[in-house]
Amino acid sequence: QVQLVESGGGLVQPGGSLRLSCAASGSFVSINAMGWYRGKQRELVASITSGDGTNYAHSVKGRFTISRDNAKNTVYLQMTSLKPEDTAVYYCNAGVTGYRSMWSGDYWGQGTQVTVSS
User: Fold this and answer.
1) pLDDT tens-digit profile of 81-92?
2) Residues pairing with 28 in the sheet
3) What angle do CA 14, 18, 20 make, to 5 degrees?
4) How far is residue 29's CA from residue 19's CA, in Å, rounded to a whole number?
5) In the predicted model, is pLDDT for residue 1 greater than 90?
6) Coil, strand or helix: which one is 28?
7) Taking CA 10 as the corner, what is the angle to CA 82 and CA 47, rounded to the nearest 5 degrees?
């Protein structure tokens, strides 16, 4: 149906940068808002609408940039000036409209580990 596959996580030093990617595949009518969340409670990091409107958590504003490529059904998170407190598992989320109403809803990726440490 719908699969979200994340990539780009890893170990980076404080002040460094990483780019996360999340590609959606499968069968669906459209992808609506997409976002990145982190931690066990899946706290919002950044989200982006289908029209490229964005929201950011206060803790990452000015450091992270979310973007999407609708032709590729992919959302990105460019992370700069990384801090140890950014260490977490990052999860991709997508609001999906399916061909049947029962297939519509929120989908989550498997998560990718980001570790910021010296």
Assistant:
1) 999 999 999 999
2) none
3) 140
4) 27
5) no
6) coil
7) 60
The residue type of 92 is: C
Q: Which two tokens stand for residue 54?
A: 């964005």
Q: How far apart are CA 59 and CA 95, in angstroms?
A: 24
In terms of C-beta density within 10 A (0-12 exposed, 13-18 middle, 19 or more buried), how is residue 38 classed?
Answer: buried
**pLDDT (tens digit per residue) in 4-43:** 999 999 999 999 999 999 999 999 999 999 999 999 999 9
Phi, psi of 28 (to 5 degrees): -160, 160
| 86, 95 contact by CB (below 8 A) | no
Task: Give yes or no for a contact between 2 and 107, defined as CB atoms under 8 angstroms apart.
Answer: yes
The DSSP bridge partners found for residue 108 are: 93
Q: In this structure, what token pair is assigned to residue 101?
A: 């109403």
In eight-state DSSP terms, residue 19 is E
Q: What are phi and psi of 52, to 5 degrees?
A: 75, 15
| Start-to-end C-alpha separation, the chain | 40
